[in-house]
Amino acid sequence: MKSLLKEKIPGHSYRMWIEPIVFCENDDNAIVLACPNQFSIKRISDHYGQMIEDTVSSTAGRALKVRLVVGASRAGERREDPQDRQMKLPDIDLPTNGGLLLRKDFTFDQFVVGKNSDFAYSAALSLAARNQGNRNALYLLSKTGLGKSHLSQAVGHHILQAFPQERVYYITAEDFMNEMTDSYRNSNIHRFKEKYRQNCDVLLLEDVHFLSGKNGTQEELSNTLESLMNADKKIIYSSSYLPSDIPKLNEKLKSRLCCGLISKIDTPDYKTRLRILKQTAKSSGYTIPEEVFQYLASELTEDVRQLKSGFIGVAAKASLLGSDVDLSLARSVVKNIVASREGITLDSIKRLVCKYYDVRLMDLTSRSRRQSIVRPRQVAMYLSRQYTDHSLQTIGKSFNRYHATALYALKTVEKGVKENGPFQKHVEFLSERLEKGKV
């Protein structure tokens, strides 16, 4: 039976959900199959129940019912599972034991798997389900907007539902640093250490590249990770950069990060983008024509975030205007989202920045550290990263800088944008000019 199901179910799903099922017993009208826990039963019933029943009936040559029960991983080993006594959690944003809330839609079921993310998805799901022999640390690597936060939080959701007694902390590296700093300031550092070293079972740490140059935080995090690893706890890191590419990172922390299985998420291809759009439409209960799905999938190619933004824009505009969703409406929305990136180059970005800040091109590549030069240079590097496919090393070299300086520039501008300061206004204005081709 399993061999037939293996042909119908994607590899990562088969390995995670079908492979652990074992035959238990049968009678004239039904067979009983054992699953590892109650969470597995629900997942299998919801997504594969009918398929399993049809396959069993087809193999037996007569109609049979399938009953799923909690059992051990090997036939003959029956045990009571504590999940039988757990109530189903409500469909809300799940609170962790510390840090940020988990978004309710960032689950494994809502993540659309493609060739770009198959390995990362399987690795995250395997870690969350605690498969034997699996590593306890995972490093999710991707550009912004491709789904690493989704997968990281999906691990948290899965563990909180399958193992409710676990203490899951979801936090950004920046918040970790701020919390540590406040603890020192308020003479509560012992509580901070106890929280993360003794009272944490699963640590979901976002944007570890933020710690570049933060020596004190790096040392504390290294010690925390060592304690968690020694205690066999689970750790998920996420970043836009490989540990070896993060500048000013001490060797101890770099070694800890490299202990995790590094799984990269690439840009989704057309088929995957189409499936993401349809999944988004299904989740929101909104229906749009197939030709509009195809148009959005072919035009919005940058990342998942842009793709979903396009769908939301189409749905919102149709609702506000009281009109039907058609290609004409979709084109009007996409026109405002998609930058004319074919004409955007490092040189065109430099020219625009020079014009806006009234500086010379040679100033951007000079060694000057005057603020009137540094800020335009940082903004130009940030825009280069946002609007071109060039690596950090290439961008840095274009401005006569090392990639570490380019990364620092990105972090500085990103922080300024979040704070709604002058950087935000500058970046918004220049981004609009670039997207409209007014360089």
Structure description:
It is a single chain. With 439 residues, this protein is of the alpha/beta class. It has 4 domains: 2-82, 2-Layer Sandwich (GMP Synthetase, Chain A, domain 3), CATH 3.30.300.180; 98-264, P-loop containing nucleotide triphosphate hydrolases (Rossmann fold, 3-Layer(aba) Sandwich), CATH 3.40.50; 270-337, Helicase, Ruva Protein, domain 3 (Orthogonal Bundle), CATH 1.10.8; 341-435, DnaA protein, C-terminal DNA-binding domain (Chromosomal Replication Initiator Protein Dnaa, Chain: A). 54% of the residues lie in helices and 10% in strands. The chain is built from 19 helices and 9 strands. The strands form 2 sheets. Strands 4-6-7-8-5-9 form a 6-stranded parallel β-sheet, with helices on both faces. Strand 1 (22-26) and strand 2 form a beta hairpin. It is globular, with a radius of gyration of 25 Å.
Give a quick precis of the structure.
The chain is of the alpha/beta class and 439 residues long. It has helices at residues 2-8, 11-18, 38-60, 118-129, 148-162, 173-185, 189-197, 215-230, 251-258, 270-284, 290-299, 304-321, 327-337, 346-357, 361-364, 371-387, 392-398, 403-418, 422-435, and strands at 22-26, 30-35, 65-70, 98-99, 137-141, 168-172, 202-206, 234-239, 261-264.
Q: What is the number of helical segments per DSSP (H or I, 4+ residues)?
A: 19
User: What does the radius of gyration come to?
Assistant: 25 Å
Q: How many domain regions?
A: 4
Remind me, CATH topology of the largest domain? Rossmann fold
Helix content: 40-55%
Secondary-structure-derived class:
alpha/beta
The CATH C-level class name of the largest domain: Alpha Beta
Query: What average pLDDT do the residues reach?
Result: 82
Order of helices and strands: HHEEHEEHEHEHHEHEHEHHHHHHHHHH
| Low-confidence spans | 73-92
Span between N and C termini?
62 Å
Strand content: 5-15%
Based on the structure given, which CATH architecture of the largest domain is correct?
3-Layer(aba) Sandwich
